[in-house]
């Protein structure tokens, strides 16, 4: 798509987007990580910029993606750093999109020097729970701390399991998180992680559920921004 062919409907909108996976260090050479490529978050940042938004992208581990032109990129490594940066910036944003894959847990302690094999075999790794950043910003908005109406978008990567399908898990997560929109991606079997295509659902607290047919992450980005634009329009009029 040519940038000048896109609608310039987000001029003046301040957007905070998180992308990529966090890495939780174990020792100077090792970390706990995940398979997020960052591509969907970068596609959102690019598309939003082309539509006139001013975008800050807080980026964790990505597969060496080029910073989108005109976007301020803030690099982070751990979930704690991500939480700090989001906390500092959410108040200045009209839209917060949490596309980052945040580690749920982090090692309780980080060894100062490389952990050696030793003779006694592996020691168990003790973990602490990371803060839920998305729930944190929803709670801050509910307390009136974000100054004005902020549209908040979450992501969920679901495989479905014995307790329910992808969509069931997505509905439950939307209710639990309290964000306005939840992008539910079907993952597993090579879907989503690191690929250029995505498929899934866009769920809104209004109850609307839109299927997102298999397509590029660029196409998915513009669908998501269309839905964000509708919510912004509603809060502005
Ligand atoms: N998220 C977050 N902080 C965390 C974990 C997740 O802000 N500590 C955000 C993600 O960026 C994403 C959304 O919450 O937008 C859903 O992430 P997900 O991992 O699917 O949700 P969890 O509540 O961690 O549930 P699960 O047990 O399925 O991992
Ligand atoms: Ca999680």
From TrEMBL:
Location of region: Phosphopantothenate--cysteine ligase: 15-237
Key words of the record: Decarboxylase, Flavoprotein, FMN, Ligase, Lyase, Magnesium, Metal-binding, Multifunctional enzyme
Enzyme Commission identifier(s): 4.1.1.36, 6.3.2.5
Gene Ontology CC: one annotated term: phosphopantothenoylcysteine decarboxylase complex
An example Gene Ontology molecular-function term: FMN binding
Catalysed reaction equations from the record: N-[(R)-4-phosphopantothenoyl]-L-cysteine + H(+) = (R)-4'-phosphopantetheine + CO2; (R)-4'-phosphopantothenate + L-cysteine + CTP = N-[(R)-4-phosphopantothenoyl]-L-cysteine + CMP + diphosphate + H(+)
GO terms under biological process: coenzyme A biosynthetic process; pantothenate catabolic process
Keyword Transferase carried by entry: no
Source organism, top-level taxon: Bacteria
UniProt domain DNA/pantothenate metabolism flavoprotein C-terminal: residue ranges: 10-228
Pathway participation: Cofactor biosynthesis; coenzyme A biosynthesis; CoA from (R)-pantothenate: step 3/5; Cofactor biosynthesis; coenzyme A biosynthesis; CoA from (R)-pantothenate: step 2/5
Cofactor(s) required, per the database record: FMN; Mg(2+)
Chain residues that bind CTP: 104, 114, 131-134, 155, 173, 177
Cofactor note: Binds 1 FMN per subunit.
Keyword Lyase listed: yes
Protein's job: Catalyzes two steps in the biosynthesis of coenzyme A. In the first step cysteine is conjugated to 4'-phosphopantothenate to form 4-phosphopantothenoylcysteine, in the latter compound is decarboxylated to form 4'-phosphopantotheine. Catalyzes two sequential steps in the biosynthesis of coenzyme A. In the first step cysteine is conjugated to 4'-phosphopantothenate to form 4-phosphopantothenoylcysteine. In the second step the latter compound is decarboxylated to form 4'-phosphopantotheine.
Family recorded in the similarity comment: In the C-terminal section; belongs to the PPC synthetase family. In the N-terminal section; belongs to the HFCD (homo-oligomeric flavin containing Cys decarboxylase) superfamily.
Protein name per UniProt: Coenzyme A biosynthesis bifunctional protein CoaBC
Organism: Williamsia herbipolensis
Lineage: Bacteria, Bacillati, Actinomycetota, Actinomycetes, Mycobacteriales
Stretch of the intact protein here: 181 to 417 of 418
